[in-house]
Amino acid sequence: MRRRATENQIPFATAIAERLCIPKPNYNDFYETQGFISTNFDSFYLEKHQTLLRKRGLRTTYEFDRITKNLGNAHGIYCLFDGDDLLYIGISQTLGKRMTDSISEKNLRGSMINKIAYHITETYSDMRILEIALIAKYKPHLNKEYKFDGTPTIFVPDIDPYSLERYSIYEDKRTFSLAA
Predict the structure, then answer these.
(1) CATH: 3.40.50.1450, 3.40.220.10, 3.40.1440.10, 3.90.320.10. Which one for 62-168?
(2) For residues 166 and 168, what is the distance between their CA atoms, to the nearest angstrom?
(3) pTM of the shown model
(4) Torsion over CA of 103, 133, 117 and 112, rounded to 10 degrees?
């Protein structure tokens, strides 16, 4: 006998299907429903983010949308900028989704993030060490942790957030806040 989808899965899968305009899974099959959620979650989340922006009269660039979708499960560091000012350095094992989350979180708190940059790392350990070293060196305004006195003296690859290729997030180049 097949296991039925849980009470938590059904409304979530329904919301995904409705937002993405795709057929609902068979709720009588737990694994089909779970697979449906796993397969479509990133698209659902990005569409939800786009809807929030559209309500505020904003549209993300094609390049930003392409990058966040293509990064998928890549892990590494990302940098958030207001023009040329480095505001935040973060890490993630799912860069595309995390960058979108982080931009929304920071902008809702009144920051003016309008450009992103990222660097993919080979391992999780590389990602963590690089984050700590870069925050200690550049001391971005929105980072709360790892702002130590001095510069690390151990060898860390010389990755300069200011020299990474930056991508505009929004189609118009003005600076704004989503908090409006």
Answers:
(1) 3.40.1440.10
(2) 7
(3) 0.64
(4) 40
